Give the backbone structure.
Amino acid sequence: MDYAAALVEQNMLFGELIRDADPATPVPTCPGWTLQQLFRHVGRGDRWAAQIVRDRVEEFLDPRTVRDGKPPADPDGAIRWLHGGPRALADAIADIGADTAAWTFFGPRPAAWWVRRRLHEATVHRADAALALGVPYELAAPLAADGISEWLDMVADTQRLGRPASLDPGVTLHIHATDDLGPSGEWMIKGGEGGVTWDHGHGKATTAVRGRAVDLLLALLRRPATDVQVFGAEDVWATWLERTPF
C-alpha cells in the first residue's frame, strides 16, 4: 500500500467534507470538540509529526509549539494549510531518509512510520466529521483493514509499556471482516500476562466480532458502527472496548 498517497487522498477528502460546514458544529465522537478544533487537530498533527522527524526530536513535542501550527483565518487559506501537512511530512522524511530513526510514542521507529500513523489518524477523524455532519462515511476495505492492524499494533505496544491488558490471560478475540480480503481480513487476538498479541488467522475464540472492515474499524475505535455482530462471550468485547480508550 502506498501510505503517502493514501494520506494525501484522505487529507483531501477530509478538507472537502468540512470546507463549507459550520466550524462550530459539535463533534460527538470527540467530546468537547467542534469541527474547527478537529480541523486544527488534524492539520497541526501532520506538521507535528513533520517537525519531530525533521528536527530529530528525542522526546515528546508539545503540539502547541509546532511551527505554523495554526490555520489562517480565511477558509481557502485554511484548506491550503491543511493540505500542506502531508507534504511537510513527506518532505521531512525525504530529507532525513525513510529508514532513519525518529521519536514515536513507542520508542524509536523508522521515520516512515509516521506516514501510516498520520494516515489512519486522518481516516478516523474523517469519520468523526462525517458523523458530526450526519453524512455517510465509507472507506475502502483494504485501507480499513490496514487501519485495524495498525490499531492493534498500537494497543499491543501500549500494553507492553505498562497499560493494563485489554484481554485477560487465556482469553481470545477473533475479528473477522466480511469483505473479500483473504487472510488480511481476519485477526486473532490473544490475552497474555504481558498484554495482548495478535496475528492474521482464523480459529475458535472466546468471542468473535464480524462485519465490514470499515465498520469493524469504527467499532474498535469506539465510534458508532452498523452491522457489527458479536458472537460468544459479549462481556469480552465490552471489556476490550473499556480497556482500549482512544
In short: Residues 175 and 209 are 5 Å apart (CA to CA).
